[in-house]
Every structure is written in structure tokens, then in C-alpha cells.
Amino acid sequence: MLLQIDNVLSPADLAAIHERLASASWKDGRVTAGYQSAQAKNNAQVAEDDPIARALGDTLVERLLAQPTFFAAALPLRIYPPLFNRYAGGQSFGMHVDNAIRYDRRSDPAVAVRTDLSATLFLDDPDSYDGGELVIEDTYGSHTVKLPAGHMVLYPGNSLHRVEPVTRGTRTACFFWVQSMVPSAMHRRLLFDMDVSIQALTAAAGDPDALVRLTGVYHNLLREWAQT
Questions:
Q1: What pLDDT digit, counting tens, does each position of 58-68 carry?
Q2: For the chain, what percent of residues have pLDDT higher than 70?
Q3: Which domain holds residue 176?
């Protein structure tokens, strides 16, 4: 499932993030890529152990966990600490697939995070740069994503994807991975559709007894499929 989540960050949030990132420690983005991905990757990235990146990432995770659409779609068990990258001057990231497992080294020993879902949160106005589209391939073809600042796309971690060259301006983004409580993408999609339907029926003052039964089905399916 490829899902756009709007207004994760406000204009004030974005201004504060850009101000803090301006003094962060940027380095070659290939340091976090696997061997194959490193051959295609050309961008800059804030160091994972940079205090600014860690503080911004912790705040963002708090926001995400309180975001109903994100929580309903991802059913997060673990979130890899958010990272920040930027592209400029023709930089790009060729077609690749993300590593299936990443290790959060903030803990000792490091915690393994299975990358069920990938996420990109756009931090720049799309009119401020040319190129930089995120292109995601799945069984239905290629999907081109270039969202307003503060909007996010959530997509399967096993998808082939790339970032087109940025030929004008700078494209800054936050990216991270999610290990879901529900490993099956099909099961997550069914639960998400059911959750959205329950919310719509609740807003429309649907039959309360039917809503209770439907909500019970949702939680029983989650109980059956979740791994914690």
C-alpha cells in the first residue's frame, strides 16, 4: 500500500527544523547504504549520531505515534530513528531496494528493525527545486511522488524506488523505516480499510450495535495477526 499522509508538520515546525538542520553535521549519504545501494546513492545526510538529528527524530516519532492515519496504516512496533538527507546540484539516488533489516545502535546490544514500511517526509516546497521526485515501483507500475513540505508518503519497504536528479535548488527530506506489529502487507491493508470504515461510520452516526460488532472483528483480527 502506498499512502500519502498530509500535514504531518506545520509551517512553524518546518521552519524550526530547517533552522536546526542548518547547523547539523552533514556527510556523504553513502555511509548508511548497503553495498549495492552505495553504487547508486549520491546525496548528503546528517550523521546518525548528530545530537540535532536525534532530537528532531525523537520529536518526529512522537508526532507520528499521535497521527491517526499513520498509526492505522503502519501499526508500528518499532520505528528506526528518523534520518535527514538532501539533494542538490544534480545529485540523485538510482533504483534500489532498502535493506530488509537495519540495526538501531542506540541500544546495547543494537536492536534489529525489520523494514516492513519505508517513509519519506518532504521538508521543502516542491516549487523551490526541480527534479527530486521519488519514484516507487510496484506490481501496478511506477508511481511518482513529490509532495508539499510537511507531507509524507508511506510505502512497502520491499519496493524498488529511486530519487530523480535535483537540477535546481535543494530537496531536503526526513526518511525512516517501520517494523509493523502485523508483518503481512495484505493483513495491514485489510485492517487499515476496516479502521477507516469504522471511523467513517462513527462520524456518520451509524448503527451503534453494528459498530461495536465491527470494532470487535477489527480487534480480533489484530489479535490474531499481530506479533509483539
A1: 999 999 999 99
A2: 96
A3: 3-180
Is residue 214 pLDDT above 80, yes or no? yes
Identify whether residues 114 and 208 lie together within a single domain. Answer: no
What CATH number is attached to the domain comprising 219? 4.10.860.20
- Number of helices (H) and strands (E), helices first, in the chain? 6, 17
Contact between residue 159 and residue 186 where contact means Cβ atoms under 8 Å apart: no
Residues 17 and 97 both lie in one domain:
yes
State how many domains the chain has.
2
Asked if residues 45 and 84 have their Cβ atoms less than 8 Å apart, the reply is yes
The span from the CA of 119 to the CA of 143, in Å, is 14
7: left (phi over 0), alpha (psi -120 to 50) or beta: left
- Output DSSP code: residue 48: T
Q: Give the separation between CA 58 and CA 35, rounded to whole angstroms.
A: 28
- The C-alpha atoms of residue 115 and residue 209 are separated, in whole angstroms, by 38
Q: What is the pTM of this model?
A: 0.93
Sign of CA dihedral 174, 179, 185, 191: negative
Asked whether the beta carbons of 188 and 226 are under 8 A apart, the reply is no
**pLDDT per position as a tens digit, 127-171:** 999 999 999 998 889 999 999 999 999 999 999 999 999 999 999
One domain, residues 172 and 194: no
